[in-house]
Write a structure and sequence with these properties.
By secondary structure, this protein is α/β, with parallel strands linked by helices. It is built from twelve helices and 17 strands. It has a seven-stranded mixed sheet with strand order 8-7-13-14-15-12-16. It has a five-stranded parallel sheet with strand order 10-2-1-11-17. The chain has a three-stranded antiparallel sheet with strand order 5-9-6. The structure holds flavin-adenine dinucleotide.
Length: 369
């Protein structure tokens, strides 16, 4: 095995690494503990042939041309611009907050040039710690207390099961607001969904004569049995080190899928419910995927503490542990025998394009050594 590279995890970080290594002539073993590839971006066709995202809705968006060009080698696109509505005060309003959101909620009729002054006035009329000490202060310092309470306060409590005052101000450094009527969720140049799904896209990334994929295989059970030329690790950071510095916490989700005999159920692919019900949001996949059918599938998200690791928890304690683990990572990476990359291995919130970019950069630096 000495002349072989091992990639732990067949998500986007792992598949990107494997592909680039294989294209540069390396033999690559990809080890995946689950029975499927694509990690959190995994999608599948259900019993009715509807394409659903098993781990929650994923929309690809990036400003990085080199990332878009790279993934476009493995898929064509369903061009889609994501839109989200929020159910607030019995109304469905655009989110992120834009001019229409403000006009609908407050019964005013302000123009684009007046939105900035409106928000400044909202902030001026609000009490908060300035400079901001926590998440609550940070949001209020940007949009004022009224909008904070309508959109952010209860959503955050549902999502994190913590008082927003206990969360770091960093989480809300820049709340996206728009003074015009642009109601797109993202403003990146390249946006869409892989035409035949993320799983198909990752399958094509891994289709290379120098890549050997093994699923249902946990790295921790086999790691002592061989020595690889390079190990690219995309699994949980703390698990690699046997949780020697302590366990890193994650927030998880219960995803409940429901099939309806309807052509379309919602007015947008995602509707947020900050204040009502126990779920945070409902996704209707076909609005994103563009699939045609007389049926439609909804996905309700209920945040919870335990389970599949979805979101890192940016508490001070976790961040301190992360820093200690990352010092160990640095030492291993210096040896040239290891690379840690991805949302789990770096304990970092990453969008898909950021994971792909990080993996591209780390592998190309290693190849230049
Ligand atoms: C609900 C939700 C919605 C999201 N929506 C978006 C979105 O709309 N747009 C966007 O850009 N990003 C989105 N993301 C982020 C996106 O999911 C991640 O950026 C991306 O999937 C991370 O890829 P990864 O390869 O780092 O990790 P993963 O996808 O988690 O892949 C890691 C893989 O490693 C495997 N593994 C771990 N340990 C081992 C081991 N010991 N042995 C073998 N295999 C192992 C795991 O099983 C997994 O398959 C969302 C995330 C969540 C939670």
């Amino acid at each position: 095995m000495k002349d072989v590279c091992v990639v732990v995890g067949a998500g986007l970080a792992g598949a990107t690494a494997a592909r680039i290594l294989a294209e540069s002539g390396e033999r690559v073993f990809v080890i995946e503990r689950l029975n499927h590839i694509a990690g959190h971006a995994y999608d599948e066709f259900d019993e009715n042939g509807m394409l659903i995202h098993k781990y929650g809705p994923h929309i690809f968006h990036t400003n990085e041309k080199k990332v878009f060009d790279f993934v476009s080698k493995f898929t064509s696109w369903h061009y889609y611009q994501h839109r989200v509505l929020s159910y607030v005060d019995g109304m469905l309003v655009p989110f992120p907050i834009n001019r229409d959101t403000i006009n609908s909620l407050f019964g005013v009729n302000i123009s684009t040039s007046e939105v900035e002054d409106f928000l400044k006035e909202e902030v001026k009329n609000s009490n908060f710690n300035n400079p901001p000490k926590n998440f609550e202060d940070m949001v209020i310092s940007q949009v004022g207390r009224r909008l904070y309470e309508k959109f952010f306060k209860n959503y955050t409590i549902k999502q994190w099961s913590r008082d927003p005052k206990e969360l770091s101000a960093d989480v809300a450094k820049r709340i996206p607001t728009r003074s015009n009527r642009d109601d797109r969720y993202f403003s990146d140049k390249y946006q869409g969904l892989p035409k035949f799904g993320y799983t198909k896209m990752v399958e094509r990334m891994l289709e290379h004569p120098k890549i050997f994929l093994v699923t249902n295989c946990d790295y921790s059970e086999i790691k002592d049995e061989f020595k690889a030329k390079l190990t690219v690790y995309t699994g949980e950071l703390d698990k690699f080190f046997g949780e020697s510095i302590g366990k890193l916490e994650y927030r998880s989700l219960d995803l409940i899928f429901e099939t309806l005999e309807e052509k379309q159920h919602q007015q947008a692919a995602v509707i947020n419910y900050p204040n009502d019900y126990d779920w945070t949001r409902i996704t209707e996949f076909k609005i994103m995927t563009g699939q045609k059918s007389d049926k439609t599938v909804l996905c309700y998200e209920y945040p919870k503490d335990e389970g599949e690791p979805y979101y890192i928890v940016m508490s001070e304690e976790n961040m301190q542990k992360r820093e200690k683990y990352m010092k160990e990572v640095e030492k291993l990476e210096k040896s040239g025998e290891y690379i840690f990359v991805g949302r789990l291995a770096e304990y970092k919130y990453y969008n898909m394009d950021q994971v792909i970019l990080a993996s591209m950069e780390k592998i190309s630096n290693w190849l230049k050594r």
